[in-house]
Amino acid sequence: MATELKKIRLSTSPTDEALAALQIGDIVYLDGVVYTAREGVYKRVIEDGVDLPLDLPMASAANFHCSPAATQHDDGSFILGAVTATASFRFSKWIGAWLAASGAKLIIGKGGMNPEDYRDHFVPHGAIYLTTVGYGTGALLGRGVKAVCELHWRRELGLAQAMWVIEVKNFGPFIVESDRHGNSLFERENAKIAANIEAAYNGTKPAVLKRFGETDDRQDELI
Amino acid sequence: MITIERLQATAEELMRRAAIEIPEDYLTGLKTAAAAEDSDLSSFVLEAMLENYDAAKEDGRAMCGDTGCPRWYVKMGNEARVDGGPVALEAALRRATAKATSTVPLRPNRVHPLWRTDYDNNVGIGAPEIEYGFEPGGDWIDLTTVHKGGLFGTDYRMLFPSDGIQGIKRFFLDSLVAFGKRGLACQPAIIGIGLGGSKDACMVLGKRAACLRVVGDRNPDPKIAELEDEMKVLGNSIGMGAMGFVGKSMVIDCNIEIGFCHTGGMQMSVHAFCLSSRRAVARIYGDGRVEYRTNPEWFTDYQRRETVEWPQS
Ligand code: SF4
Questions:
Q1: Which of A12, A99, B248, B252 has its CA 20 to 30 A from that of B207?
Q2: Which ipTM did the prediction report?
Q3: How far apart, in Å, are the Cα atoms of A111 and each of A185, B50, B157?
Q4: Contact status of B52 with chain A (Cβ, < 8 Å)
C-alpha cells in the first residue's frame, strides 16, 4: 500500500515560515480567502492597466486559476457548485507581472508551470505553486467553499473569467508542486518515468510520413 | 408520438445526471485501478477521485468544476415521431442545455472562438453539438448527453498501410505520453481510437469510441477486440499514472472503432474521456415511458453494418 503523505493546513495569507516549510509532494488544505484570476483578469490588469478591484495581497495572497460552475441570480445571490482549476502553463506570459502586481504567494492551478517560470518569477517573489488533484476533484473543492464574498468584472469578463472572491475552509486537497526553491514535483516524476518510456516504445516504429516540428525525445515537455 | 415537453424534461434530467453521477462502469474501472496502484502519489489522487464522486452525489453538485462541453447524441428508432418534428427537437435540446447550465449549475464554457462572446448558457453557434443516428424498427428515441471535458488528450494523424500495427501503437503512445505528462489529459481515461474513414469521420469514430462505449465493452471483431486489450496493457505499462505521477493507471479501457477508408491511407485519431467520463442516456418511447441508463448502446450491428442492404439477406 502507499505510504502516508504529509498533510498540512495552510492560511491563504501564509507566513514566511509556513511557506518555507512546504515541500514538493506535501498535501495542503487552505483556510481563508482565495480569488480566481486567469487570462481575462491578467490581460485587464497587466495589459489594459485597469486597477485591481480589491486590495491585494491584503484581502488574499492566493490566486486560483479557476472558473467555477456557478450562477448569479437576478437578486445578486450565487449558487456555486463545483470548482476545478484550469491548466496554468498558458498564463506564463503574465505570471511575472501578476506576482508583482498582486503580491500573491500561492498560485493554485492545474498542472504547474514551466521550470523557468518558477526560477524567474516564483522564487524571487517567494511564491509557491499548488496543484489541484485529479484534476477532477471539483465536488470536494466545492465543499470547502463557505461563501462567495464578491464577484468582480462579471459584466466585463463573463462568469467564467470574472474574479470570484471566495471564503474557504479546509479547502483541498492540493499538492505542493513547486516549493520556495523552485523545485518541481512534476519534473521529478517526469525524470523517474523517462527510463521506462523507452521500454514501452520497444518494437514500435516512427510514422512513414513525418510532421513539422516533431520531436522524438520523450523527455521533452510540450508545454 | 413523443411530446416535446417529455423530451425537454428528460433532456434536463439527463444534463443533471451526467454532470453529477459518474457512470457505474467507469467507477468500477477506476476502483480496480485504485486497488492495483502502489505509488503513493498516484494512489492518493485515485482515492481523492473516488471520494469526489461520492461528494458530488451526496451534495448534488457537479463532479468537476469544468463541466465540459455538453453535446447530444440522438438515436431514433425508425418508427419514432416527434411532436413538432426535428426542428422542435433541436430547440428542446438547446433549451434543456441552457436551463441546466443555471440550475445544476454547470460552468458556462461555450464562447465564440474569436470574439469570446459568452451567453452564460453553453449555447451558441454550433453548440451544443447534436448528432444523429437511426435504428431499424422501434418507436423510441435514445437521448444521450456527453459532457466531454479536456482541451488535451486528442490527436489525429494520417498513417499509411505500411505503418501497420506498430505505427498505430507508436502514435497511441505518443498521444498518451504527450498529454499524460502533468496529467493534462486527466487520466486514467477511457481511450477511444478511430481508425480509417476520412479525417473528419476518423475523429468522430474515435470520439464516439471513447464516449459512447462503456468500460469492459469489446469490439465484435475478435482481432480488434484483442488489439483493444493490448493497447490497454501497453498504455498502463508506460509507468505513468494519474496526474503524470509514477504509477500504472493511465488507461481505464481502450475502445477502437473503424470505418472503411481510402485504399492508400490509415487515418488514426486518439481521444481521452477523462476522470469525469460524463454520459447519461434515456430511452423515450412513443407512449411516454422513459427509461434511464448510462450505456449509450450506440454501436449496434446496424451502426457497424458492412453490407449494401439491411437487413442482411
Ligand atoms: S479533463 Fe475532465 S476531469 Fe479534467 S478538468 Fe476537464 S472535465 Fe474535469
A1: B248
A2: 0.90
A3: 10, 20, 26
A4: yes
